[in-house]
Give the backbone structure.
Amino acid sequence: MKPRQLGNLTVSEIGMGCMGFSHGYGPVPERDYSIAAIRQAFEYGCTFFDTAEVYGTEQFYPGHNEQLVGAALEPLRKQVVLASKLHFTDSNIPPVSGDLDTVTAATAAATAEGKDSGNSVLLMPLAALDQAYLDSIYDILKRHLIKSLENLRTDYLDLYYLHRLHDFIPVQAVAWGMGRLKQEGFILGWGLSQVTREVIAAAHEVTPVNAVQNLYSMLERDCESEVEPFCLEHNIGLVSFSPIASGLLSGKVTVNTDFSAADDVRKFVPQLSAENIKGNQPILELIQRYADLKQATPAQISLAWMLHKYPNVVPIPGSKNQERIQENLQADRVCLTRSEFNELETALNACTVYGHRGINESQQRSFGNNWKK
Ligand SMILES: NC(=O)c1ccc[n+]([C@@H]2O[C@H](COP(=O)([O-])OP(=O)(O)OC[C@H]3O[C@@H](n4cnc5c(N)ncnc54)[C@H](OP(=O)(O)O)[C@@H]3O)[C@@H](O)[C@H]2O)c1
């Protein structure tokens, strides 16, 4: 498969989201099947694997998915790019300390913002933060990382993301801690997930960001306006999560698809309500037309579209089915010509999108509860 860059990291242009083997889409396959599926993905050319410490918490325990990925990729470790994510769960997060005026003003602003929109972001210049405070954030990052490394059976991570911003930890402090982990050789690069341009810029100034993992698909194009241009300009990769819109863009999800199993997030996804599935049919029909034209599947068209559109986008479709994993990875063989892409894009722009994946995921600070809003 062709390579792409996430900053200084080289990855296959389509990666593999491993979450579904432990979390989010209902019952999971047998462990041996999952391990074989992950190894097969490598045989199909995938060198980029995505997991997170929280995947598995609902059905199993935190770290379940990392352990599975670690077991599958241990023999291939040097040939793959492993990405995992940290989620601040610690109850003993230290209060921000540093230049008192700056801290007070920034905290007050974030609190006020949070009260109004539920979308508080604490941004503070690095110089305003105490060294002792920065060290304590580094200690937390390292504690989480060491556990992930154990789970993943490795002594370094290629890419370590902050899964979600913490309301009261300035992203600059996280960026500083990630920079130190990088200097010490524990990680080769770092990233952020579900963040705005403003947050990426603040973090990138402290420690260059390799990749931003945001929701991006033909049905969720928010990041095209600000995030993607900033990433392109600054040599940051945009890793697209849920690139098939939780399966909807494959054309296989219908109003009769059953999402009632425990730990199936699709029952909370507004875009997957019967009404919105019906509303989005013109988009699915459009994709099907291109699938017929290119002798491809709709899921492949949805991936080929974003690969064509931006050189720094790397989708990480998630499937726990070996055939569909192969299908998704083979989307790199579908080449849209410039005129085919332009026609598809124009037609897509003319369509109305019904529903969204959830509440604005940037506002999601914990996993589970927000889906139910
Ligand atoms: N950073 C974040 O906050 C965040 C959030 C969510 C996900 N992620 C990461 O992104 C990865 C991908 O996201 P996702 O799994 O939510 O989205 P996705 O790839 O858009 O959708 C996955 C769903 O689509 C189905 N599917 C996948 N390929 C298919 C195909 N070719 N035909 C028919 N159905 C297909 C899967 O079912 P089957 O398993 O039955 O094939 C699954 O139900 C995750 O694995 C995870 O690593 C990150």
Q: What stands out?
A: The pocket of NAP is lined by residues 17-20, 25, 50, 193-194, 213, 241-247, 250, 252, 299, 316-321, 324, 327-328 (CB under 6 Å). The first strand starts at residue 3 and ends at 6. The chain has twelve helices and ten strands.
